[in-house]
Amino acid sequence: DELSSDDENRSNSSGPAPRIVVRKIFTNSRERWRQQNVSGAFGELRKLVPTHPPDKKLSKNEILRMAIRHIQLLTGVLDWQQQQHIHMKTTTSPIATVL
User: Fold this and answer.
1) pLDDT at 1
2) Is residue 61 located within the same domain as residue 94?
3) Which residues does the UniProt record annotate as the domain BHLH (predicted)?
4) Which of 7, 48, 56, 66 has CB atoms 3.0–4.6 Å from 3's, for a disulfide?
């Protein structure tokens, strides 16, 4: 009963098969790139979230929660401005619009 060359190499080697090692290296590299990409995105988002002091270290969870609160605040400001604009249009006298 002869072993194929792949089977023979596997039985003679002390470590994992070369294909498995290459796959692990590729998977690790891809995961490292993904983590760097996510960290970079959090870094960009962090710059947009106002805090005091401005350079305060925040966790990713804190960055997300503060970004949500900031977006809600800005949405509220926009809603208020739109209501003020509508109110000004409806309460402006005809004489003021002519001038």
Assistant:
1) 47
2) yes
3) 22-74
4) 7
Q: In angstroms, rounded to a whole number, what is the distance separating the alpha carbons of residues 95 and 99?
A: 7
Same domain, 2 and 41: yes
Q: What is the dihedral of CA 14, 15, 18, 21, to 10 degrees?
A: -170
Cut 0.70: pTM above it: no
| Tokens standing for residue 39 | 């960290």
Do residues 32 and 74 share a domain?
A: no
Number of domains into which the chain is organized = 2
Return mean pLDDT, the chain.
85
Which one, of 39, 86, 34, lies nearest residue 58 by Cα?
A: 39
